[in-house]
Amino acid sequence: GIYDQNGNMKEAEMEALVHGLPCPEAVLIWEAPLKSQQVSLIKRFGPNVNLGNIAPEETLALQALRCGLRGDTLRLCLDHMAANCRRVSGGEVSSGGNIDADF
What pTM was estimated for this model as a whole? Predict the structure, then answer.
């Protein structure tokens, strides 16, 4: 698997698994019951990564992670927003400026 006995991501195994897949975030569903696993996968594949085995009471917290509303992923969201602001043409932010778009 892609996790060690403590639930930490084994980066080499994960990268070997997705190597050669054109769009792994679209074709794979990752089992990620722990917040640390969810954060690792969101950081690697973006906020629209397919995650499974999420406890029902954790779905809102996961959505907050995806939107960059928690400290774990806030930096990704801010970096995305800054990049979008640099793509200014004619005084308006380009269509990619939506905060809840893929960061």
Answer: 0.72
For residue 60, the tally of other CB atoms under 10 A from its CB is 9
Give 10-residue mean pLDDT values along the chain (103 residues).
94 92 90 95 92 96 89 78 66 46 50
User: What does 58-99 look like in DSSP terms, one character per residue?
Assistant: GHHHHHHHHTT-SHHHHHHHHHHHHHHHHSEETTEE-GGG-T
Query: Measured between alpha carbons, how far is 35 from 41 in angstroms, rounded to an integer?
Result: 10
- The closest alpha carbon to 77, from 45, 46, 32, 38, belongs to 46
Q: Any idea which residue has 């809102």 for tokens?
A: 60
Where are the chain's structural domains? 11-97
Ramachandran class of 74: left when φ > 0, alpha when ψ lies in -120 to 50, beta otherwise? alpha
- Residue position matching structure tokens 């990704």: 76
Q: Hunting for tokens 């509303």 — which residue is that?
A: 69
Q: Which residues contact 1 (CB under 8 A, 6 or more apart)?
A: 10, 13
